[in-house]
C-alpha cells in the first residue's frame, strides 16, 4: 500500500522530479487556467493571494506568479514546501504570509477548508480520450454493464469528451463530477458524495451493483477508493502508459491488515494523536472527539504536532503504544510497517474503543463522517460498572483487558493527575503517569547534573582540520 508521507528525509532527497508533470512553456495559460484564476482574484477583490504548488510544478511558480500579478494587480506569495501533504490547502502558511485567498495548484484531496477562500487549479494533464474509450470497451464488452467512471482530478477537463463517446453505447454508465467543497443540503437518496466526487446510482442494490472504472495512475486516491468501496470490482486506465487493466489489489488482505491494527489499538494504553492537518474543516472537533473517546475507554492520550510524520520522529515517543493520524481522507492511510509503533485512522480507533460501533464492511477514511450529525456517527453507550463488565481477551497477547467505558472523572482534577498526596511538610505533590514512565527509562536525555560535574577552566582547543590537527602526534600536557 502506498504511503501518505515520505518516510524520511533521504526519500525526499532521492526523489527524481522530471518535467513530465510540468506544463509546456507555451501552454501555461491553458494548463494553469490563468483566465479563471485571474477572474477569481478580481471577483473577490483580494489584495494578497498565496499560490500553493507541489514539488513537480514548482519550476513554473515564478512565471505563473508574475503573470498573475500583471493580470490582477494583486500581490502573489508562492508556497512551496507544505506543512503536511501537498494535496491539502496549507492555510497555516497562507495565514502566516497574510494571504486573503489561496490558489491551490496540482492534485488535491478536495477536503473543505476552514477559513480562506480557495480556488483549485488541478492542471490539465493530457489524456488520449480515444485510447481511454477503447480500453473501457475492452474491459466492459457487455453494453448493459453498470459502471461508475471516476478520475484523477488532473483529467477532469477531459471527462466531458469521454462521456460523449461512451454514453450512447452504455446506457447504465455513470460519470462522477468533481466537487470542490461540501454541496449544500442533505444528500438525496441514491446520490453518493465522497472524496470530492458526486454521482447518482439507480440500481436497486445501490452502489454495490456497479463496477468502478478509474482514469489515472496508481496512487493514494485509487487506494482510498478501493478500500472505501470494497464491494465493487475496480479497473483502471493509466494515461501515462495508455493501457487499461483490472485491478488485482487484494482488498481483503488490506482490510485484514487494518483490522489487525484495530486489535492493536484495543490493547494500547497510551495513544498519541498525530495532528496531520491544520486546514481541513472539522479537525479541531475530531481532536476533541478522539480525546473524549480515549478518556471514556480508560486510555491516556497525548496530542502531538510533528509536521510530516516519519519513523525517526515518532520513535522519540517510546511511552506511546499506538498513534492515530488525523489527516485528510487520502493521507489517513499511512503505511506504518516502517514505524516503531502502529499508526491507525480515527475510524479504526473508533472501532477499537466504541463498543456501539461494529464492523459492517464499510470502511471510512474521512474523519468528518464520525462527528455528531454526520452520516456515520455512533453515540457512545452509557458507562458500565467494572463489576458488571464482560471480560475481554486480546487476540494478540491472549491477556485479559478492560473493555468497558469509564465514568467521567471528577471535574476538579487535572487530566494528567491520578493521585494527589502530601508529604511530612504538608506540601502537595502530584503523581503523573508520564513522569513515572520517564523516571523508569534508562536514558532520559541530557541532564545538567548540578553539583556532580567538576568545574574546569576554559583551555586551548585543538586547531587545524579533521584530517590533520596541529597537535596530532604529540602528547597533550
UniProtKB/TrEMBL annotation:
Q: Which Pfam families match?
A: Diphthamide_syn (PF01866)
Where does the signal sequence lie?
none
Molecular-function annotations in GO: 2-(3-amino-3-carboxypropyl)histidine synthase activity; iron-sulfur cluster binding; metal ion binding
State the Gene Ontology BP annotations: protein histidyl modification to diphthamide
Identify the InterPro entries for this entry.
DHP2 (IPR010014), DPH1/DPH2 (IPR016435), DPH1/DPH2_1 (IPR042263), DPH1/DPH2_3 (IPR042265)
- State which pathway it belongs to: Protein modification; peptidyl-diphthamide biosynthesis
Keywords noted in UniProt: Iron, Iron-sulfur, Metal-binding
Give cofactor(s), names only: [4Fe-4S] cluster
Does the keyword section mention Metal-binding? yes
Concerning its family, UniProt says: Belongs to the DPH1/DPH2 family. DPH2 subfamily.
The role this protein plays is: Required for the first step of diphthamide biosynthesis, a post-translational modification of histidine which occurs in elongation factor 2. DPH1 and DPH2 transfer a 3-amino-3-carboxypropyl (ACP) group from S-adenosyl-L-methionine (SAM) to a histidine residue, the reaction is assisted by a reduction system comprising DPH3 and a NADH-dependent reductase. Facilitates the reduction of the catalytic iron-sulfur cluster found in the DPH1 subunit.
Q: What is this protein called?
A: 2-(3-amino-3-carboxypropyl)histidine synthase subunit 2
The organism is Otus sunia
Q: Supply the source organism's classification.
A: Eukaryota, Metazoa, Chordata, Craniata, Vertebrata
Amino acid at each position: 500500500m502506498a504511503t501518505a508521507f515520505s518516510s524520511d528525509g533521504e526519500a525526499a532527497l532521492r526523489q527524481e522530479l522530471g518535467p513530465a508533470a510540468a506544463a509546456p512553456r507555451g501552454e501555461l495559460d491553458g494548463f494553469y487556467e490563468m483566465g479563471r484564476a485571474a477572474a477569481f482574484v478580481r471577483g473577490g477583490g483580494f489584495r494578497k493571494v498565496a499560490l500553493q504548488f507541489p514539488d513537480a510544478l514548482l519550476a513554473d511558480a515564478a512565471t505563473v506568479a508574475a503573470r498573475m500579478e500583471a493580470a490582477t494587480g494583486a500581490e502573489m506569495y508562492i508556497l512551496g514546501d507544505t506543512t503536511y501533504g501537498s494535496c491539502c490547502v496549507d492555510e497555516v502558511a497562507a495565514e502566516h504570509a497574510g494571504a486573503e485567498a489561496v490558489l491551490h495548484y496540482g492534485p488535491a484531496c478536495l477536503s473543505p477548508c476552514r477559513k480562506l477562500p480557495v480556488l483549485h487549479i488541478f492542471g490539465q494533464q493530457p489524456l488520449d480520450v480515444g485510447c481511454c474509450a477503447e480500453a473501457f470497451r475492452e474491459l466492459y464488452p457487455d453494453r448493459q454493464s453498470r459502471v461508475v467512471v471516476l478520475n484523477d482530478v488532473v483529467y477532469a477537463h477531459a471527462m466531458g469528451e469521454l462521456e460523449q463517446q461512451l454514453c450512447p453505447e452504455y446506457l447504465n454508465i455513470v460519470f462522477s463530477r468533481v466537487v470542490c467543497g461540501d454541496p449544500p443540503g442533505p444528500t438525496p437518496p441514491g446520490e453518493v458524495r465522497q472524496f470530492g466526487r458526486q454521482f447518482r446510482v439507480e440500481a436497486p442494490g445501490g452502489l454495490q451493483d456497479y463496477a468502478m472504472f478509474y482514469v489515472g495512475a496508481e496512487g493514494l486516491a485509487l487506494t482510498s477508493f478501493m478500500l472505501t468501496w470494497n464491494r465493487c470490482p475496480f479497473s483502471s486506465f493509466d494515461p501515462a502508459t495508455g493501457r487499461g487493466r483490472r485491478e488485482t489489489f487484494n482488498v481483503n488482505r488490506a482490510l485484514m491488515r487494518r483490522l489487525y491494527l484495530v486489535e492493536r489499538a484495543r490493547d494500547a494504553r497510551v495513544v498519541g494523536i498525530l495532528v496531520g492537518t491544520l486546514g481541513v474543516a472539522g479537525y479541531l472537533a475530531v481532536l476533541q472527539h478522539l480525546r473524549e473517546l480515549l478518556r471514556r475507554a480508560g486510555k491516556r492520550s497525548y496530542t502531538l504536532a510533528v509536521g510530516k510524520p516519519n519513523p525517526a520522529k515518532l520513535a522519540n515517543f517510546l511511552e506511546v503504544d499506538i498513534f492515530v493520524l488525523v489527516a485528510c481522507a487520502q493521507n489517513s492511510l499511512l503505511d506504518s510497517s516502517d514505524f516503531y509503533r502502529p499508526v491507525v485512522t480515527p475510524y479504526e480507533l473508533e472501532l477499537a474503543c466504541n463498543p456501539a460501533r461494529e464492523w459492517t464492511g464499510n470502511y471510512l477514511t474521512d474523519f468528518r463522517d464520525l462527528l455528531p450529525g454526520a452520516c456515520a456517527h455512533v453515540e457512545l453507550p452509557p458507562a458500565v460498572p467494572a463489576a458488571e463488565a464482560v471480560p475481554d481477551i486480546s487476540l494478540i497477547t491472549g491477556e485479559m483487558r478492560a473493555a468497558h467505558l469509564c465514568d467521567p472523572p471528577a471535574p476538579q482534577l487535572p487530566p494528567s493527575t491520578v493521585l494527589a498526596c502530601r508529604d511530612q511538610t504538608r506540601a502537595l505533590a502530584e503523581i503523573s503517569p508520564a513522569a513515572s514512565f520517564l523516571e523508569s527509562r534508562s536514558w532520559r536525555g541530557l541532564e545538567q547534573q548540578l553539583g556532580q560535574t567538576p568545574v574546569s577552566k576554559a583551555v586551548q582547543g585543538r586547531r587545524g582540520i579533521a584530517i590533520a590537527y596541529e597537535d596530532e602526534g604529540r602528547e597533550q600536557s
